[in-house]
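Record type: ASSEMBLY
Status: queued
Input:
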Amino acid sequence: MADIRNNFVGIKSPNPFWLASAPPTDKAYNVERAFKAGWGGVVWKTLGEEGPPVVNVNGPRYGAIWGADRRLLGLNNIELITDRDLYTNLREMKEVKKNWPDRAVVASIMVPCEEQAWKAILPLVEETEVDGIELNFGCPHGMSERRMGSAVGQVPEYIEMVVRWCKQYTRMPVITKLTPNITDIRHPARAAKRGGTDAVSLINTISSIVSVDLDSFSPNPSIGGKGSHGGYCGPAVKPIALNMVAEIARDAETYGLPISGIGGVTTWRDAAEFLALGAGNVQVCTAAMTYGFKIVEEMITGLCDWMDEKGHRTLDDITGRAVQNVTDWQYLNLNYIAKAHIDQDACIKCGRCHIACEDTSHQAITNMVDGVRHFEVMEEECVGCNLCVNVCPVENCITLDALPAGQLDQRTGKVVDPSYANWTQHPNNPMSREAAE
Amino acid sequence: MDRLGNGIEAGRLAPAEYEANFADLHPRLDRHEALVASDRCYFCYDAPCMTACPTAIDIPLFIRQISTGNPLGSAKTIFDQNILGGMCARVCPTETLCEQVCVRNTAEDRPVEIGKLQRYATDIAMETNRQFYQRAVSTGKTVAIVGAGPAGLAAAHRLARHGHSVVIFDAREKAGGLNEYGIATYKAVDDFAAREVDYVTAIGGIEIRNGQALGRDFSLSDLSTQYDGVFLGMGLAGVNGLGVEGEDLQGVDDAVDFIAVLRQTADKSLVPIGRRVIVIGGGMTAIDAAIQAKLLGAEEVTICYRRGKENMNASTYEQDLATANGVIIRHWLAPKKIVGEDGRVAGIEVEYTAMRDGRLVGTGEAGVIAADQIMKAIGQTFSASGLGALQFERGKIMVDVEGRTSVEGIWAGGDCIGTGEDLTVSAVAQGRDAAESINRALMAAAQPAMAVA
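Status: finished
Output:
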């Protein structure tokens, strides 16, 4: 039986599923419900400075995009950090942690980039006996206009400076939450590491306008006819998050730095993918906001069942397993050759593979054979691009199968070479020619 | 009136029952339902549904337009190919046309609900009387159309679009043909057929003259001389007889007449029906008559068909609809004699049949089924009066692929032609295509001779 207990920078939780700092973790009522539902931990909704709390808009805070059957694919929000009094939050955090000692409770903090501000709040948080702190350097909307959130996360020097203060003024583990609204995620991650962070968490939300109302010509969510960019999250952002997690996991400078993976985790499978790319645990928000806290049951059972099936005993058996397989394009094996294959028994004859290939790719799929509607890959044209696999509505109907070494590639007329050869060695690469000379 | 009274009586049911029984069979999808249903379309390449549609409506496109919140654009996509798309959405046997070939059947045994989606879009356009087509500048050409049914209306609309002036002659009091007189009441409620005629003719340039029968009120040569072109779109006026003893007894009726009377009677409680009704036949008319007999309060309705289930012209869906309404369908029974009592129907003697050496034969085993009313639904025939020199095939007008008859200047389409398929949607396609052919002919004739340098 798989053991999915999680130890993330010394913070223990019964499973690796934490709720991210967000609306679902704004108060004790929600967090208690989450713990009853089985969540392993929460990062409490971001605390601000002592004093009058921030205010939120009183109109819509969220916008969304949907897939078929109105499945929510991406959520955009313009809600700020907690708009409740600091001491109310601290009191509730302390109480909840006391009632749920086996669950992780982490305080998310966002105060101005001044040493005194951090020095003031850290002891107050420490007093609640929560397990750690997460520095919110990520929110791209609202607070960034006040030089907080992503405004800090976009300047590596600020990250390093604030992390250093935090490590100086608290004994609690420090998790630095990064914004994806930068060009290269490795720089803020390296800065956090230089500052002494115990871990990074990512991604925070992506700056976004989710839609435009075509009657009023206002961006959504529309506050009386005006809109502002929000933070984008949900299933749609997962690929961006996975890449950023992997970039940090395989960077020489940040290699081994614990990562809490965030961004579109909706199922156990998503979580396992984050873990495989180097995350020590995951944080979830949109999935809970879409379906309620119960979805964690699917995540827990799914992860355990998969681990049992594959013989993985603990999370350590999974974490980082895919990192070594993430490489630069230039190191991909150009001698690897695959061809699409259509399972005629599974094919429903919608023709989407044909038209996608015919109109937009390599003209490698028939639509008619001997006067009969029939979709078949023409190997002599197929470059193995995988587009047909991706557009086919039937899972596993079209597969991309590798040609074994020694077999003829009908497209090039060459036999598949068993050796590994990448772009750096390729004759068409001017750099490789230079190297050879 | 007594619910279980013997004989053929009106008012067997309470008023509320009539209302419920003859309400819309499939109420229109609401917006949410339409969005959910449209999501299931895969937007197939060279979509099989489109190929299966006799009018070749671009089904993937119109469904995608629904899914993107553009029902009016969707309706135009439908009307571009089939101006009677509203009625076709109601009466097409989609289960044997577009929906039968939907690729969703392969994986899930459940097609996209193409018919219902078509109705959703066309209803929205028609309810707001959104007209998508304008009459071209008048060509000065005139075309006479005989029959204001689906073929005639489709032809008239297409001709009007091209700027020709159209006069439709129809023998009945109302236009619409089978849409008005031959469709089961619950498939076209709220006077839909008449509203559709108004919607189609709103383009202008179409005059309908009712009560005008070919061969009685005018002749084909009248039309040929007075108009630049003629399109014949008549229906099948004749009904096949059983050819058995007792056919003239009181209580033996034609199913098509019964269906027409029911359609034309606003208060269904006035339509008399037998307590025990036998319908002879295996097509859509038999099903429509049987179901509606049941809905009028007949206690026992039996369809007798002389061949097997797989031979029935009525689709499986229609058969299931009948049985779900309490109709009993009996196969391999042929009528031998109608049994009378005091000049009225008392039952029918039937003989079991079987296929022997590829031929349908009576087995000799016979019996009597008691009945107050017998409805004949064993096919309709084309009565070819006043068609003079036209050549025929299989008892109907012979046409070429463009709908041209053997006589120049005369086109035909719908049930009256040899290749007619007894389907509204096919009639629409034939009327539309003949109109294009007529237009080509008229415009070619109108072109001044090319100047030669």
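Annotation: Residues 294 and 403 of chain B are 40 Å apart (CA to CA).
Annotation: Residues 239-380 of chain B form a domain with the FAD/NAD(P)-binding domain fold (CATH 3.50.50.60).
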